[in-house]
Amino acid sequence: MPEGPSIVLLREAAAKFKGKTVREVSGNSTLDLACLQGRRVRAVRSWGKHFLLEFSHVTLRIHLMMFGSWRIDERKETPAWVSLRFDNGELNFYTCSVKLIARPLDEVYDWRSDVMSDLWDPSLARRRLKSMPDVLVCDALLDQTLFSGVGNIIKNEVLFRIRVHPANHVGDVPPRKLAELVRQAREYSFDFLEWKRGFELKKRWQVHTRRTCPRCGGLVSKVHMGTTHRRTFFCPVCQIDYRVLPLPPAAKKRTRARSAAQRGAGKVVR
């Protein structure tokens, strides 16, 4: 699934269509996009994993999902789901989710949660994290209301950078580590962007899809973890599991409350 930095690259490449008029609309999308023909693009924007073409009356939203792709001024052999032709080129999308947004974008999106945005608000992310102590950190990083644009690669690499085991609950992680998680969610995203521009992203991965840890030389674990069951790569030696360390009183209280709730729900507690 293309992550936020990849959508920024798409936004930059498609910027040439700002102010241009759509001359022709075609594609296999079941959505009726005829309303875009003859309309001028007011802005080319992005929010997290969403690519946005803003017109005066509506916004075209493209989500590339797991296997989506795009082409500018060229086409793949397979038919496009959405194809927009302008006087200065064409924009094609494949295997994507397509939606028309009628409301103003400022009413739809909270730009403060986009890790690539100039309006990113780390204080807001920290406050929201503190309000979800029972959520796994691997799930928290993929929560688009907290870290819009963060995907599975960034999740794995950020947790390795800050040496936090992905199975920790947010409430069990020390505050300084949570602050580091918030900071690195943005910093790694911009590193991702520069490495992808330089065609060197994969060779920069430290733990994602790797077999051995570059720090200790031990085996990297691969588990489908969290509510999304996404592939999670981590070093069981270098990344701290705070669940097996002595907990401060407040954390012990949260753990007991969580266990009691699970027992009440009929779950087996080990």
From TrEMBL:
<keyword id="KW-0863">Zinc-finger</keyword>
<dbReference type="InterPro" id="IPR000214">
    <property type="entry name" value="Znf_DNA_glyclase/AP_lyase"/>
</dbReference>
<keyword id="KW-0511">Multifunctional enzyme</keyword>
<dbReference type="InterPro" id="IPR010979">
    <property type="entry name" value="Ribosomal_uS13-like_H2TH"/>
</dbReference>
<protein>
    <submittedName>
        <fullName>Endonuclease</fullName>
    </submittedName>
</protein>
<keyword id="KW-0326">Glycosidase</keyword>
<dbReference type="GO" id="GO:0008534">
    <property type="term" value="F:oxidized purine nucleobase lesion DNA N-glycosylase activity"/>
</dbReference>
<dbReference type="Pfam" id="PF01149">
    <property type="entry name" value="Fapy_DNA_glyco"/>
</dbReference>
<keyword id="KW-0540">Nuclease</keyword>
<dbReference type="GO" id="GO:0003684">
    <property type="term" value="F:damaged DNA binding"/>
</dbReference>
<dbReference type="InterPro" id="IPR035937">
    <property type="entry name" value="FPG_N"/>
</dbReference>
<dbReference type="GO" id="GO:0006284">
    <property type="term" value="P:base-excision repair"/>
</dbReference>
<keyword id="KW-0234">DNA repair</keyword>
<dbReference type="Pfam" id="PF06831">
    <property type="entry name" value="H2TH"/>
</dbReference>
<dbReference type="InterPro" id="IPR015886">
    <property type="entry name" value="H2TH_FPG"/>
</dbReference>
<feature type="domain" description="FPG-type">
    <location>
        <begin position="206"/>
        <end position="240"/>
    </location>
</feature>
<keyword id="KW-0378">Hydrolase</keyword>
<keyword id="KW-0238">DNA-binding</keyword>
<dbReference type="GO" id="GO:0003906">
    <property type="term" value="F:DNA-(apurinic or apyrimidinic site) endonuclease activity"/>
</dbReference>
<comment type="similarity">
    <text>Belongs to the FPG family.</text>
</comment>
<keyword id="KW-0479">Metal-binding</keyword>
<keyword id="KW-0227">DNA damage</keyword>
<keyword id="KW-0456">Lyase</keyword>
<keyword id="KW-0255">Endonuclease</keyword>
<feature type="domain" description="Formamidopyrimidine-DNA glycosylase catalytic">
    <location>
        <begin position="2"/>
        <end position="101"/>
    </location>
</feature>
<keyword id="KW-0862">Zinc</keyword>
<dbReference type="GO" id="GO:0008270">
    <property type="term" value="F:zinc ion binding"/>
</dbReference>
<dbReference type="GO" id="GO:0016829">
    <property type="term" value="F:lyase activity"/>
</dbReference>
<dbReference type="InterPro" id="IPR012319">
    <property type="entry name" value="FPG_cat"/>
</dbReference>
